[in-house]
Design brief:
Elements (H helix, E strand, L loop, with lengths): L2 H9 L12 H12 L6 E5 L6 H13 L14 H7 L6 E5 L6 H11 L9 E6 L6 H12 L5 E7 L7 H4 L3 E4 L5 H14 L6 H11 L3 H14 L8 H7 L5 H13 L2 H13 L4 H17 L14 H13 L2 H17 L6 H16 L1 H20 L12 H21 L19 H10 L3 H9 L1 E7 L2 E6 L7 H13 L4 E4 L8 H18 L1 H9 L15
Parallel strand pairs: 1-4, 1-5, 2-3, 3-4, 7-8
Antiparallel strand pairs: 6-7
The chain binds zinc ion (ZN).
Length: 557
Amino acid sequence: MNNNSKVLALKYRPKTFKDLIGQEVVAKTIYNSIKNNRSANAYLFTGIRGVGKTTIARIVAKSLNCLKGIDQLCSEEFCENCKSISNSNHIDVLEMDAASKTGVDDVRDLIEFSRYGPATAKYKIFIIDEVHMLSKQAFNALLKTLEEPPEYLKFIFATTEIKKIPVTVVSRCQRFDLSRVNSVDLFNFIKEVKNKEKGKINDEALKLIVKISEGSVRDALSLLDRALLNQNEKSELELKSAQKIFGYLDKSYLINLFKFLFKGSEKEVINIYRSIYNQGIEPKIFLNDFLEILYYIKNISSLKLDGTNFSLNDVEFKEIELISKEISPEILLLFWQFTVKTLDELDIVSNQNLSMEMFLIRLLYLKEDKIIETKKDIALKYENYSNNINKSDKIQPSKDEEDLEIKNKTISQIKNFFQEETSNPERKIDSKIKKIEITSFENLINLCNENKELKLKYELETNVSLVSFVDKKIEISFNENLDKDFVKELSLKLYEWTGQRWIIAFSKKIGELSKKQKEDIEKSKIIEEVKKKDTFKRVLEIFPDAELIDVKSKDNE
Ligand SMILES: [Zn+2]
């Protein structure tokens, strides 16, 4: 937060219950209880950041201690008490941030202090912000005082994480859940502030502020501040400029991307994605916005376009309406599922940008009904297939003709699927990618090792037999232990390393022995040789039960 936004947030900080935005019910309840001398011993305010928890805490403190009484609560001219409370230096009103003072000793000091009545005000009040940060012992220490507080003592707690507060504490407080401020209220509020500040910002840009701040008044004010700093003397600040200022993704890009996605134009889809990425939009934000548009496409028919819609403007609304007519709900749901999954996996991939491109390309293929079915088939048959070849390392013709048929089909389907994915030669690789040449299978295994892709390396050495390795095409056979995601992962890595698409095909041929098999054979040969040696025979004479299990060469040590 820059200094200026602090000023704005401070300047427009609510001073009385009436100033509060969107918390009318809470304000009224508290007002009534204080008015009727039935105020709670402890108040607990919970809600997301910036909805006014500490602001309300101070208003409550002022309402309890204002010299003019709750109905004339100071808003312009402050009485002594209100003045000190507003400046956080009232002798009887202690504010504590539990984020920095979490220990039992801090709480003990506080309780010690609570043993004496207020010095100047009616009530002694402890305001504890982020109260969930207190340690367990600190809560226990607090509990006794909370159970039987003296008449003059009041607690006001604020927290963003109510679940972390012991039930025993919560149950002794009057709890208020502050809701996010609704969009219309927030819009009216920042528009009023904008007018007071003589700002030139149009309504669409203000709506964007409301949308980004997700119901937090503080966030909205801070964004408004940035907008005010960036405005132009001559003209109003418009949506486009606001989007730039806030680093917000223009929806029209995404809507366009969807259009091409549903048309099946890979080249355009990737180009649009790259231009989004080049604007500095992070993959995570991209995926979340992507989900949002998906939601609209699916549900546009039940949405209304009116003043209360803060997410779409009229052009976007119409475009989404058009798209939604063209595409079936099944596909949208499938897309949704796939996007959520990708979002989940985002943290485990090293090059998020590349996986975004792969993600989009996959969607292109998912789209075709036919391919969706094929994929389901592949998954099923692939499973059968790998189960069937369990018994031996090589693929033998099955006695069951039908089975064989499935195997053959599966192999060619898997091949086709990956070949299709590689079919667009126009796509150029990101300049950031280092182009590495991989010339042999051995080479590939070493590369996995260098890049710490140990799982891939293990699979390649242990569960895969090489049939052929020529010009970006690897043909392999494999045993039953091969991980089901092996091809997917290897393809992704190969693309990452070389900037080119590789074809990985399963072959019915037996292939070379795997590296592990070769090593095992080599070792058993050596063991046999050693067994023939005199040294070993002498060992056997002394220890007749001895068995030779492993042999290590001195050179390797
Ligand atoms: Zn006052």
